[in-house]
Design goal:
Elements (H helix, E strand, L loop, with lengths): L2 E7 L4 E6 L12 E10 L4 E5 L15 E5 L6 E5 L8 E2 H4 L1 E5 L1
Parallel strand pairs: 4-6, 5-8
Antiparallel strand pairs: 1-2, 1-3, 3-4, 6-7
Length: 102
């Protein structure tokens, strides 16, 4: 069974897709800085990220300055919602530099 999952890598790559395991989004040589699940809010033009990867944990956004996002998502804002009541949403699009790639 597949689910909408994402990861971030030490090189700042943002990968998402319908996969069974978060590691299915990795390529050889990747160092994963965490991941979770996503859904696309089409009316809000946003990618909503939440929860954490069982294998890699929650995304460690603080280790990145730039996030490389597939160009198909250009113009969409990206928001990470923490799984607790203590943190406010992390607006990835505002707090990190976003670079798009094909």
């Amino acid at each position: 069974m597949t689910h909408p999952k994402f990861i971030i890598t030490a090189e700042g790559m943002f990968r998402l897709g319908m996969v069974s395991m978060h590691e299915d989004l990795m390529i050889p040589g990747d160092e994963c800085l965490g991941g979770g699940y996503y859904y696309i809010d089409y009316p809000g033009n946003r990618i909503i990220l939440d929860r954490s990867s069982y294998d890699f944990g929650a995304p460690r956004w603080h280790l990145l300055q730039t996030l490389r996002v597939p160009s198909a998502y250009r113009g969409m804002s990206i928001v990470y919602r923490f799984d607790d009541r203590y943190h406010e949403d992390f607006n990835v699009s505002e707090d990190l530099v976003i670079e798009y790639y094909d």
